[in-house]
């Protein structure tokens, strides 16, 4: 039959259609590639904040366009204002801290147990000795670095500009997702049902939704809690910029198990500057109050919501971050969650088939 179709040329039309569609998809991907990441961010924000959007729809008497506009403006302010405030905070606190840091380094001595560490200890002693001989050497080195890195700085500023453009695209996309999200979701669901079936699509969409919520609650909110608790510890320990360090801890806390390096470095700094009691207290606070969120709360929240092992979610977060950037924090676990859902359905189908075969054989 196949040979007859080939001889009659019946394969040419389907092949042409498939090739044409494949070329169109490839060209569409090339056109839309710069907008994929902002649209994904918009989809994540729309999904997480959808219950709040529905409340605004009711408050606006069912006018979805007005509710979408209000939600988009509020969410834009919630993103942009903290960024501006953080930039002003860095300008207000980081520069005075740097001015206090340079003369303090001139009086700093490396403890013996650190100086005895191979490779690291001698290098630290050399740096501290150089700063002690010439306190202005550090300032000159930093100025020289910036002077030699004008190209990298320009690239970084260009990256900031591109990120601002992506933020605008994400907010515009968010408005349309709020306004037309239900219609778009139903169309995507129908299309997927044509390929996988209604029951399977429901399971896959449920896995995606649960994973996104789990990552938001288990990673973002956990990082916020860690940054808050760590900031309180920095303040009680007497560190000069506790608020700035707390925000830095929150940003670093988006990646699991990295926060101890922040409060641990702060504890070492306090110890090196002679604040032994504060250093010990901050280390205890970090181990008991800050790290337990990473070690207990985050795994329970994520594993409980996604029904997949936390280690697999951790691999998804880290691998997604490496492959896709910051948005990979969500994409990585979602991919693994869908694969787990497919695996569970395959196992369930095999079990049902074996049960039917056993019953028929009897």
Descriptive report:
- The chain has helices spanning 2-8, 12-48, 50-59, 64-106, 112-115, 120-133, 136-148, 150-196, 198-237, 242-252, 259-272, 276-306, 310-324, 328-361.
- By secondary structure, the chain is mainly α.
- The chain is globular.
- Helices cover 88% and strands 0% of the residues.
- The chain folds into two domains: 40-167, no CATH class; 197-353.
- It has 14 helices and no strands.
- α3 crosses α4 (64-106) and α8 packs antiparallel against α9.
Regions with little confidence, pLDDT below 50 for 5+ residues? 148-160
**Strand runs, count:** 0
Coarse structural class: mainly alpha
- Which descriptor suits the 3D outline? globular
Percent of residues in helical segments? over 70%
How many structural domains can be distinguished in the coordinates?
A: 2
C-alpha-based Rg, rounded: 27 Å
Measured distance between first and last alpha carbons: 39 Å
Kindly report the average pLDDT value.
Answer: 75
The helix/strand series, from N terminus to C terminus, equals HHHHHHHHHHHHHH
Helix count from the secondary structure assignment? 14
What share of residues are in beta strands?
under 5%
């Amino acid at each position: 039959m196949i040979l007859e179709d080939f001889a009659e040329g019946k394969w040419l039309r389907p092949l042409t259609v498939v090739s044409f569609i494949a070329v169109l998809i490839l060209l569409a991907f090339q056109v839309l590639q710069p907008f994929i990441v902002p649209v994904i961010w918009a989809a994540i924000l729309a999904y997480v904040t959808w219950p709040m959007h529905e409340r605004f729809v009711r408050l606006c008497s069912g006018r979805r366009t007005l509710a979408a506009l209000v939600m988009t403006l509020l969410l834009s302010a919630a993103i942009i204002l903290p960024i501006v405030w953080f930039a002003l905070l860095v300008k207000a606190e980081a520069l005075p801290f740097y001015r206090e840091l340079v003369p303090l380094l001139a009086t700093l001595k490396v403890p013996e147990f650190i100086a005895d560490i191979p490779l690291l200890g001698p290098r630290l002693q050399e740096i501290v000795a150089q700063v002690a001989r010439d306190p202005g050497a550090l300032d000159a080195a930093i100025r020289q670095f910036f002077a030699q890195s004008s190209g990298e700085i320009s690239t970084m500023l260009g990256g900031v500009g591109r990120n601002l453009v992506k933020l605008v695209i994400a907010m515009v996309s968010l408005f349309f997702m709020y306004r037309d999200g239900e219609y778009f979701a139903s169309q995507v669901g129908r299309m997927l049902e044509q390929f996988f079936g209604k029951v399977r699509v429901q399971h896959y969409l449920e896995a995606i939704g649960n994973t996104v919520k789990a990552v938001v609650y288990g990673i973002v909110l956990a990082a916020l809690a860690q940054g808050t608790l760590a900031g309180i510890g920095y303040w009680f320990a007497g560190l000069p910029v506790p608020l700035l360090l707390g925000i830095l801890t929150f940003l670093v806390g988006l990646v699991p198990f990295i926060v101890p390096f922040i409060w641990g470095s702060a504890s070492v700094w306090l110890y090196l500057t002679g604040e032994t009691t504060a250093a010990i207290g901050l280390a205890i606070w970090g181990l008991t109050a800050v790290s337990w969120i990473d070690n207990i709360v985050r795994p329970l929240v994520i594993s409980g919501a996604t029904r997949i092992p936390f280690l697999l979610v951790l691999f998804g977060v880290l691998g997604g971050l490496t492959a896709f950037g910051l948005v990979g924090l969500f994409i990585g676990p979602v991919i693994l969650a869908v694969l787990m859902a497919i695996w569970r359905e395959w196992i369930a189908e095999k079990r049902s088939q074996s049960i039917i075969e056993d019953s028929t054989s009897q």
